[in-house]
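Retry 2 of 3 after timeout on previous attempt. Resubmitting structure tokens to design endpoint.
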């Protein structure tokens, strides 16, 4: 909490998209969301304050001691959080230690869970927060998901990172998850300075429609709301944070419209 890090806004995007989902209804009630925290840093887990974090996504991917224990089912590690209608499969640091222990079996767990509708009676949407580095944990997440939001900064490095992710997605979809598609590239924490505007234009010509519009504006109070007060931007309030929430709502709504009509 409160640590400085070079993040590009992925975790905040995951949380805000999940929150945006809960503002929409299905069968006359709010949509329910599961967040799977696949980042050993556990930033999403810190924000959401689950009722307990002893068990978590690590127990689904690999048991503590494969000789004596079996992995848990995904539904067994979905814990209520401080956010209404948001369940969480918590992360912890052992996720990183245990990464090397992940069996091929464990790696495809999330994909199987999705295809079999294992938690379809509990939640309507699943949001997975990935670690920054593309290792086995990120690959596990990519194998398990259908729509990937890539988060990038409006910078040369941001554009390169998005390009690398696009390549990784192509490989993963060929190698084991043909349903995987890029929902869009989110330009998170965008400051409307002249040089970032120029980079944004060049990203537009490089990525076309994949680059989501508008970019998420950089607002200093996002950090305070989400990290210090564990509160979604819209609920923390203020015109600046509403602006941020509106952009995420737009992204969620257009994915929902697209996904709904595809079924
Ligand atoms: N729109 C925004 N405006 C201002 N600050 C933001 C915005 N979005 C995110 N931040 C802040 O930027 C920092 C990094 O965000 P976040 O943790 O979401 O990035 P990340 O990509 O998940 O990082 P990591 O790679 O460490 O997982 C955080 O302090 C967060 O509060
Ligand atoms: Mg993160």
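Retry 2 succeeded. Sequence:
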């Amino acid at each position: 909490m409160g640590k400085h890090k070079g993040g590009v806004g992925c975790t905040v995007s995951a949380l805000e998209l999940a929150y945006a989902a809960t503002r929409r209804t299905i069968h006359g009630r709010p949509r329910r969301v599961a967040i799977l925290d696949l980042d050993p840093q556990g930033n999403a887990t810190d924000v959401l304050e689950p009722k307990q974090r002893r068990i978590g996504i690590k127990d689904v991917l690999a048991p503590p001691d494969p000789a004596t224990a079996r992995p848990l089912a995904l539904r067994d590690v979905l814990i209520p959080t401080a956010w209404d209608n948001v369940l969480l499969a918590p992360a912890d640091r052992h996720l990183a230690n245990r990464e090397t222990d992940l069996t091929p079996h464990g790696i495809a767990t999330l994909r199987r869970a999705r295809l079999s509708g294992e938690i379809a009676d509990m939640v309507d949407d699943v949001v997975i927060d990935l670690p920054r580095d593309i290792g086995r944990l990120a690959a596990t997440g990519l194998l398990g998901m259908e729509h990937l939001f890539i988060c990038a900064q409006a910078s040369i490095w941001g554009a390169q990172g998005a390009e690398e992710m696009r390549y990784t997605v192509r490989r993963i979809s060929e190698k084991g998850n043909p349903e995987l598609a890029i929902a869009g590239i989110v330009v998170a924490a965008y400051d409307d300075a002249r040089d970032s505007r120029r980079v944004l234009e060049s990203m537009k010509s490089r990525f076309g429609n994949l680059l989501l519009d508008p970019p998420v504006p950089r607002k200093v109070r996002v950090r305070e709301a989400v990290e210090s007060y564990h509160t979604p931007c819209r609920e923390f309030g203020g015109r600046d944070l509403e602006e941020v929430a509106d952009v995420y709502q737009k992204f969620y709504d257009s994915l929902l419209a697209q996904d709904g009509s595809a079924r």
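Attempt log closed. The CA atoms of residues 194 and 200 lie 10 Å apart.
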